[in-house]
Automatic annotation (TrEMBL):
Its main location: membrane. This is UbiA prenyltransferase family protein. Gene3D superfamilies: UbiA prenyltransferase. The chain crosses the membrane at residues 20-38, 68-84, 91-107, 119-137, 187-208, 214-230, 251-266. It comes from Paenacidovorax monticola. GO terms for molecular function: transferase activity, transferring alkyl or aryl (other than methyl) groups. It is found in: Membrane. InterPro entries: UbiA_prenyltransferase, UbiA_sf.
């Protein structure tokens, strides 16, 4: 959505913008649902062995794995049908998102268990999700890639925090995540370095005019994130402390996203 809002600010056809945004929302909901269902479908056996997740596994709710498989395919087909109405570039971006999701979750690739490659897919996915909306109203250009990179770095940093949170479960299931291979303290520190890089990117984007200059002010929230991170580190990266950190920075970046929307609309 943020990509569309940034690009639509240069579009003067209000009726066209409203209809395109509606189709984007519907298509994106279907595509994201496909991505999450594919991950659940592919990782069902690992989830059954995870005490924290086994109760929520769809098999325990009377839903067969084949039914989930058909549903995720229908969701993908429906989303692609919608994106095909928004232009060839938008459809291509949606196909790339689906392909990245398949590489990450589905056998035989299952890059979720390939260190560094899984982070690369999250970085790529972050850029693509931004460009999905951006491509509806603007040609994919350097400016779109630069703004998308900010979201991609945030997305990748959050993925590493999730790996730290799931370290014990992934270790039991033999999933070779970055946290399992390199140690959760090292990966936790890396995740914060990526969040720091994201803040630096946002500042550069604001100062160079790629995003409204007022957004440079939100970088002032960085010390708050630093404080939360150090607190989690001192608590030995327990599952509870990492989940609390996730909740906090998600609200923080949701606020940054809202500030972006407000600044673009105001401009």
């Amino acid at each position: 959505m943020l990509g569309a809002i940034f690009a639509a600010s240069y579009c003067y056809s209000v009726g066209h913008s409203a209809m395109a945004l509606l189709l984007l929302v519907i298509g994106n909901v279907l595509l994201v649902a496909h991505v999450f269902l594919l991950n659940d479908w592919a990782g069902v056996h690992q989830d059954l062995r995870d005490p924290a997740r086994t109760a929520g596994v769809f098999l325990h709710r009377g839903v067969r794995r084949s039914e989930i498989g058909w549903l995720l395919l229908l969701l993908l087909a429906a989303s692609l049908a919608i994106f095909s109405q928004l232009g060839r570039m938008t459809l291509l971006v949606a196909l790339m998102i689906a392909a990245a999701s398949a590489l990450y979750s589905a056998p035989p690739a299952h890059w979720k268990g390939v260190p560094l490659a899984n982070s690369f897919l999250h970085l790529l996915g972050g850029v693509l999700h931004f460009l999905l909306g951006y491509s509806i109203f603007q040609e994919v250009d350097a400016k779109g890639m630069e703004i998308g990179l900010f979201f991609a770095v945030v997305f990748s940093a959050g993925h590493l925090v999730q790996e730290v949170r799931d370290h014990e479960a992934d270790l039991r299931n033999g999933i070779r995540t970055n946290a399992v291979m390199f140690g959760k303290r090292r990966i936790f520190a890396t995740s914060f370095l990526l969040f720091t890089l994201a803040n630096a990117l946002l500042l550069v984007l604001a100062l160079t005019g790629s995003v409204p200059e007022a957004l440079s002010l939100v970088v002032g929230l960085y010390p708050l994130h630093l404080y939360w991170t150090l607190q989690t580190w001192r608590e030995a990266l327990t599952g509870e402390s990492v989940r609390r950190l996730q909740m906090r920075y998600r609200w923080l970046y949701a606020g940054i996203g809202a500030a972006m929307v407000a600044s673009v609309l105001w401009a």
